[in-house]
Structures are given as C-alpha cells and as structure tokens.
Design goal:
single chain, about 500 residues, Chloramphenicol Acetyltransferase, globular, alpha+beta, four-stranded mixed β-sheet
Length: about 500
C-alpha cells in the first residue's frame, strides 16, 4: 500500500456520498463523563489546534481508500461502519479543552456502543477525476476538525462495477500504522453482513485504556532518569533544539506559512529488497540500519558534517491488546549516527544499528513531558520513519483492493519528514518538505542520492563510503539564500 499526499489521489469518476457519524449533543445523557485522560500526543495536538484556531490552521487528517466489488449494498456498508465505530472506542470519545489555572485541561466524555448513527448526504456525480479528488479533500478538511466531534467521516464513490470507500480521521484518533488496518477490517465487517455471519476479527483493546498508564509512567520521569539524561545530552548537542534537515530548507524571504511539497520514490523491488537485507545481515546489520547508513552517508555528502542527527518514531503498542487497536501509539526517539571521512558502509551501518538500539528505550518519554522537565519547546522538524508492513492483515490483497493511505496537506517552513516503507512489492521512500527554493534544491536530490546508495549496496560491490574530509563545502549545497533578485541561490 502506498502512503501518498492528497494531491496525488486518483479515483475514477462516480457518484459521491458522504456518510457522517452523528450522536446527541454533548450536554445530553448519551455522553458519559469519562475520567480517562488524553494521551500526551492528543493533548499536544488539540492544544496546538486550539492555539491556532484564530489564525486558520491547516488540516491534520490521515485517510485511506479502497474498493468494494460489485453494486454497493448501502445497508451492509452502514452496518459495517457502525460496527467499526463500536469496535474502536476512540471514535466514540470526545475531548474538550478547558482552562485549568495557567495550563490547559482536557475533559473527556464517551458514547456507549451503539449510540452513533450515520447520516448520508449525496454530492452528485463527478465526472472529472481531478474535480472529484479536490472535492474529497474539501470534505475531509471540513469534517475532521480535532476540536469537534465527530472528527472523522466516510465517503463513497460509486462506479459501474465497484465502489471506492474513503475513511478520513483527524490525527488524534489514529496513527499511520492504524490507517493501514482499516481496509481489511471494514471489508471483513461488510462481508460479514452480506453473508449473515460473525466477522472474523480478533478483539482489540481501547486506546482510552492506554492513555492513563502512559501518563502515570511519564509522571515518574525525573531529571536523573536514564532516558531523561540521554535526551538532555541530545538536546544540548543541538543547542537546545531538536535536529533539522541536514541542510537548511527554510527561505527567509518567504512567510512562515509555507506549504509543503513531497512525493514518493520506489527504491527497490521485492527481489532487490531481499538482496539488500542479505548484504546488510552478512555484514552484521539489518534492513533499517542499512537504510539509515545510506541516509547518513548521503547526509555527509550533502552537508560535509561528520554526524547525522534525526528523530525516529517507534510504536508503543507493547501490549497484545493494542496491536490492532485504533489510536495514536507512537513514541519519538533521538538518533545520532557518527559518520566520518573514510568510513565505509559496514562501519556506518554498525554505528546506525547501535544508535537505533540506544534510541528505542528513549521513545517511552513523551516529548511534552521532556519539554516540561527541560523548560524548552521541543518541536520535531526532521524525522525518518521505517515501517515493514508486509505481514499486516490484508497486505496480500491491498493491490487487488486498490488500497491507498493518504496524508492531508501540511503548512510548515522547516519540517522534512521521510518515510521508508517496505511492502510485498518492494521498498519506497515517501517524503515531504517545505516548498521553498532551498527545499526544492536539496530534499529531492537527497532522496535520489539515497536511492543510488541503496542500489549500490544491492549490487554488493564497491559499497558506498564517506568521502574523506575536505575543507571545501560540497558543490551541491545551494542552501544559503540571500536577496538575489530572482537569481539562483548562492552556495556558501
């Protein structure tokens, strides 16, 4: 399954319908007071949304699309969607921010199973696929406000022989991993209604049962905790900030509200992915440490610096009950890889593997809690993610189902996010970066260079290595932007 930006969505023309969840108003007996707290990620996300509400914040949803074969059975789909909402309690829960002294509190109320209905709205037949994609984006933007329940919606596009289903949810309900589970679950629930049988889905835990223990564990972090000490050292090395991209991507001539661009690049097919992993394991590494070594080597070539610093997300689904649960189960950890002039691929891969092993336990510390302890704002700006999704439920049929994962548009002048995803078809790198002059000059070329290094590893000969240190800056380093009155940025 490809994880793409909304502007790359392609759905054939058809009849568009919106299925919007509905329940009684927040002050009715349908909503039960719920003492379970917001997770740190939820609290930070809603706080940011609240603070930026007056300035026109951008969307923050994730979505998936997939096809159902044949004529659509509207009753069966409505029943499947309702069963899915009942299955995942996070979709039936509402968080309302409120002032608590000098801080922000979160008041939760939750609906019992079966209390959510669906209202269908027809939007007519859209014959132009691009117009259809634009309309879908507008509907998702309008119906996934994190400060309003429901912050998720369903859409269908009926074609002559099939129906495309789209599920969009604000990020505080779901992470990128959970988005990949939706197609299989909804198709199974739909098929169960059509066949008049129980759905063959395992029981799942509730994200709301995860949040309390998460906050209790985070409250136990203190200044001398081992994870906090590692984090403090990492932040200090960055001058009190988290890492940014290997070279600057912000253009000082542009406003702070810079739209992001991005794309998807296939690095390896399935055979080459296996060959890459074999080379890495023969040299004492694994797939991710090998890919990360290519990132580090390419970064040194671009920046001339000996160290590679980034943030890496790790899942926090440590209990079996949460393995297939909808929610935002993500911790972020700091990664620092030494890469010096003359280091070969095997040495850098060893450094990368050690960096990842050191980083994994540090994901237990939420960034918001660390910011409290350090008295500093901690904003991730450069992140490298890796997911192997070959064994997820339904993975073998995603191509048949035309399943796709989607991200909303993003406005940010500094963020560079890189997602390495290993599928049954191969490995791709999805990326997003500021649509600025230095961003366009550096990030796509960095992605291309990573692809070159990965393929060089597959070839097994003349493995990549870091160039010897030079006092001259790299030639492909057009990042210092001055007022050049329309000319190309000047390297410096």
């Amino acid at each position: 399954m490809k994880f793409i930006d909304i502007w790359d969505l392609e759905i054939p023309a058809g009849q568009l319908t919106v299925w919007r969840p509905t329940a009684g108003p927040p002050d009715t007996r349908d909503w039960i007071p719920d003492a379970r707290p917001a997770s740190y990620l939820q609290e930070g996300h809603l706080s940011d949304a609240l603070n930026s509400a007056s300035s026109g914040r951008g969307p923050s949803w994730l979505a998936t699309t997939f096809e159902l074969p044949g004529p659509l059975d509207e009753y069966a789909l409505g029943k499947a969607l309702g069963d899915w909402i009942n299955r995942h309690e996070v979709l039936r829960s509402r968080l309302e921010p409120y002032a608590d002294g000098d801080s922000l509190g979160m008041y939760r109320t939750t609906l019992r199973p079966g209390a959510v209905g669906l209202v269908r709205t027809e939007h007519g037949h859209l014959g132009d696929p691009r117009e259809l994609s634009t309309r879908i984006e507008e509907i998702l933007d309008e119906n996934t406000d994190p400060l309003i329940w429901p912050s998720f919606a369903f859409l269908t596009v009926r074609h002559p022989d099939s129906t495309t289903v789209c599920v969009g949810l604000d990020h505080h309900n779901v992470d990128g991993y959970a988005i990949l589970l939706i197609a299989q679950e909804l198709r199974e629930l739909y098929g169960a209604v059509l066949d008049d049988r129980p759905a063959r889905l395992s029981e799942v835990g509730s994200y709301l049962d995860f949040t309390g223990p998460e906050r209790r564990d985070a409250a136990g972090l203190h200044s001398e905790h081992e994870a906090v000490r590692h984090w403090r050292d990492f932040v200090a090395e960055g001058g009190g900030k988290l890492p940014e991209f290997v070279v600057p991507v912000a253009d000082p001539r542009q406003p702070a509200s810079v739209a992001q661009a991005g794309g998807l690049k296939w690095l390896l097919d399935s055979d080459d992915a296996r060959a890459f992993e074999l080379v890495c394991r023969q040299r004492g590494g694994d797939f991710f440490s090998g890919v990360l070594a290519c990132f580090a080597l390419s970064a040194r070539s671009l920046s001339g610096r000996d160290g590679f610093r980034t943030m890496v997300p790790f899942h926090t689904r440590n209990e079996r009950q949460f393995h297939r649960s909808l929610g935002w189960y993500v911790g972020i950890a700091p990664v620092s890889v030494a890469v010096r002039g003359g280091d070969d691929f095997e040495q850098v891969m060893k450094e990368a593997g050690e960096a990842l092993r050191r980083a994994r336990p540090l994901a237990c510390a939420p960034l918001a809690r660390l910011a409290e302890l350090f008295g500093l704002p901690l904003e991730p700006r450069f992140m490298v993610s890796y997911m192997d999704i070959r064994s997820l439920p339904g993975a073998g049929r995603w191509t048949e189902w035309k399943a796709t994962a989607l991200r909303s548009r993003r406005i940010h002048p500094h963020e560079v996010y890189l997602w390495i995803v290993r599928t049954r078809e191969g490995v791709y790198l999805s990326h997003r970066f500021p649509d600025s002059e230095p961003g366009r000059a550096n990030v796509p070329s960095y992605v291309s260079d990573i692809g070159r290094l990965v393929r060089q590893v597959v070839a097994g000969e003349n493995l990549p290595s870091a160039a010897p240190h030079s006092s001259c800056p790299p030639r492909s380093h057009p990042v210092c932007v001055r007022d050049t009155k329309g000319k190309e940025p000047t390297p410096c």
